[in-house]
Automatic annotation (TrEMBL):
Belongs to the zinc-containing alcohol dehydrogenase family. It is an enzyme of class 1 (oxidoreductase). GO terms for cellular component: cytoplasm. SUPFAM superfamilies: GroES-like, NAD(P)-binding Rossmann-fold domains. It comes from Zopfia rhizophila CBS 207.26. Keywords: Metal-binding, NAD, Oxidoreductase, Zinc. The keyword NAD applies. This is alcohol dehydrogenase. Residues 18-349 form the Enoyl reductase (ER) domain. Coiled coil: none annotated. Its cofactor is Zn(2+). Its EC number is 1.1.1.1. The keyword Kinase does not apply.
């Protein structure tokens, strides 16, 4: 088996913060004792990868860096301590590449909060290469009947919005506003919300995203944040009784909606912050927040169980979100479109091209 693994591979590498990414050949690494080497077939491109290129966040990346954390592929090598995943199994390299499994948070299955967490495509090399390494305990187990291109976006976007919807606490029949609905997280959020029995109000901009949300993803209404004269009123008006959505999932990449959501959420409702716009602050009026008894919280990816559940929703045929496949070599084009807000759904890279 090992003889089939090349010594060199194609990868997209960030040499310096600010980019651009460089498509070039780099060595294939060998997995450590508790790691697996995954031959990545497809990798989704998350907006987080663009934040990493731009150095947007108060957390430095490794440099040089191979980005990517929605990598779906086949296990081709494993360390000697690994016995619960086999060569030939399908696996996903997700944002959480590894964690200590021993700290207070890891013990409670809150491993995204582990202070020693390794982050794919950020603090360790990720999935924008043909062969990526991850801790065996953390790679997502992907059933063989699930297509690797379609499952790639689930490995970050899907897991994250599924977890966020659980954190929102909304019950079947209640309404959720998805802010940033036309993007990668937002498109999957609509499908998970629908599968969980929630009624969706989609918020984003442009006719292409509007059509996708209403005709493909199951949103009941769409509010265009760029053309609406009053987003707060329009979102509230989109709920059956005009009192506003029970939950708001903020997956947008701009600060403004993080300062509006508390105004239109329903009394007793929850605002779940997921998007991570650079340098942004949350704002909510104290008076209304108190007398409406609203909750505002953050939600960060998901644990191993959330990951398995999110993949199972997909396997059961409940999740269908549009994605476009292009070659790994075309990553810079994807970033340019993402920067301009032009992507409806997700781009997935085919690492063979
Ligand atoms: P994306 O670029 O695919 O989508 C973002 C969408 O937000 C776009 O459709 C854009 O039109 C929309 N938008 C911009 N301004 C808006 C506004 N004012 N109101 C409503 N919509 C607006 O990005 P993505 O890959 O879906 O990622 C979204 C964000 O989530 C990024 O900041 C990313 O880093 C973050 N993220 C967080 C987690 C987490 O665990 N918390 C996980 C993954 C991604
Ligand atoms: Zn991501
Ligand atoms: Zn830990």
């Amino acid at each position: 088996m090992a003889s089939q693994i090349p010594t060199e591979q194609w990868a997209q590498v960030i040499e310096k913060t600010g980019g651009p990414v460089q498509y070039k050949k780099i060595p294939v690494q060998k997995p450590g004792p508790d790691e697996v080497l995954v031959n990545i077939k497809y990798s989704g491109v998350c907006h987080t990868d663009l934040h990493a290129v731009n150095g947007d966040w108060p957390l430095p990346t490794k440099l040089p860096l191979v980005g990517g954390h929605e990598g779906a592929g086949v296990v081709v090598a494993k360390g000697q301590l690994v016995d619960d995943i086999q060569i030939g199994d399908h696996a996903g390299v997700k944002w959480l590449n590894g964690s200590c499994l021993a700290c207070d948070f890891c013990q409670q299955a809150d491993e995204p909060l582990c202070s020693k967490a390794l982050l794919s495509g950020y603090t360790v090399d990720g999935s924008f290469q043909q062969y990526a390494i991850a801790k065996a305990a953390h790679v997502a187990r992907i059933p063989k009947d699930v297509p690797l291109d379609a499952i790639a976006p689930v490995l970050c976007a899907g897991i994250t919005v599924y977890k966020g919807l659980k954190e929102a606490g909304a019950r079947p029949g209640q309404s959720v506003a998805i802010v940033g609905a036309g993007g990668g997280l937002g498109s999957l959020a609509q499908q998970y919300a629908k599968a969980m029995g929630l009624r969706v109000i989609a918020i984003d901009t442009g006719d292409e995203k509007k059509k996708m949300c209403l005709e493909q993803l199951g949103a009941e209404s769409f509010v265009d944040f760029a053309t609406s004269k009053n987003v707060v009123k329009d979102v509230q008006a989109a709920t059956a009784d005009g009192l506003g959505p029970h939950a708001v999932l903020l997956v947008a990449v701009n600060e403004k909606p993080f300062q509006q959501a508390a105004e239109y959420v329903r009394p007793r409702g929850s605002v779940v912050c997921i998007g991570l716009p650079a340098g942004a602050y949350l704002k909510a009026p104290v008076f209304e927040s108190v007398i409406k008894m609203i909750s505002i919280k953050g939600s960060y990816v998901g644990n191993r169980k959330d990951s398995a559940e999110a993949i199972d929703f997909y396997r059961r045929g409940l999740i269908k979100a549009p994605f476009k496949v292009v070659g790994l070599s075309e990553l810079q084009m994807v970033y340019d479109k993402m920067h301009r807000g032009e992507i409806a759904g997700r781009y997935v890279l085919d690492t063979s091209k």
